[in-house]
Amino acid sequence: MSFAPVARRRGSARQLLSGALLVLPAAAVTLLVVGGGIGATVFQALGLMPVAGPVTPGIDAFLAHPDDLAAATAVSLAVAAVSTVIAVVVGTGAAVVIASGRAGSRLLAALGATTVTVPHLIGAATIGLLLADAGVLPRLLGIPPEAWGPWVGGPLWGAAIAEFAWKESAFVALVVTGTLATRIATYDETAALLGAGRWRRFRHVLLPLTAPTIVICAAISFVYALGSYEVTWLLGRTYPEPLPVLAVRLFQGVSLASRPEAAAVALVTCAISLAVVALTFAALRRTAVWR
């Protein structure tokens, strides 16, 4: 059993122009701020806007620390990917429970709304106090520090992944719940009346109709985890450093010569984020709901 979503009709040229004019002021300010920042980063990374010394065009900043840059890119991509997958799975499952109106759905929705309001810095400090080898959780369980796994500062970046997954799963749950609260509930009820079980309704009705929302939430979560500084700095290892931590360390270095190197690392992070956004829109255009 499958329910094909109804394709959206494109508005007239006048409606499209009116909508573009409405968002033009906000888009112009955003383009000025973001575009100006990215442009200055590009010029500095390419040696065209040095803090001190003569202009020396080139890509030396990208080649200054190739091993560190490669390790930082790998760590950042791994942490962002794993935490995003966990957040999407947990958040989508929580959204289905919340939208179903079963017992405990209101409590789950309240927990999700409360979690979203917690800043990531406070969340990282909380996870650190909870999962450290001498933290709250091993003390409650009676596990000695030497027998507790290296969640904080460990090789698998467990605490950082747990913090991102915890926070972003609440975000995914609330956004997907808002999508399920629309006409999708009607499709689900129709499928139930036609004899479809819960799993078939989820696979053929809920999941296809919420796919664009899930993809967008996953992209937002991935990009945020990729560029987050405070969480990986507090809960991660000293080496290899993630991209944002490496960029901040180079930027705060004593030598001004490291500023272009910091700009190069930031530019790599920005390029990966833009690539993820481009892939997200390419995936969305393939969905029937988006069309």
What key phrases describe this protein's structure?
291 residues, mainly alpha, 12 helices, 71% helix
What this model shows, in words?
Helices cover 71% and strands 0% of the residues. It has 291 residues and is an all-alpha fold. Helix 3 (66-100) crosses helix 7 (158-180), helix 3 packs antiparallel against helix 9 (198-227) and helix 4 crosses helix 7 (158-180). The longest helix has 35 residues, at 66-100. Mean pLDDT is 86; it is low at 1-7.
Q: Kindly state the mean pLDDT as a whole number?
A: 86
Discrete helix count:
12
The main β sheet shows up as: none
Q: What's the alpha carbon Rg, rounded to whole Å?
A: 23 Å
Which structural class should the secondary elements be placed in? mainly alpha
Helix content: over 70%
Summarize, please.
The chain is an all-alpha fold and 291 residues long. The protein has helices at 13-45, 60-63, 66-100, 105-117, 120-131, 136-141, 158-180, 184-193, 198-227, 230-235, 243-251, 259-284.
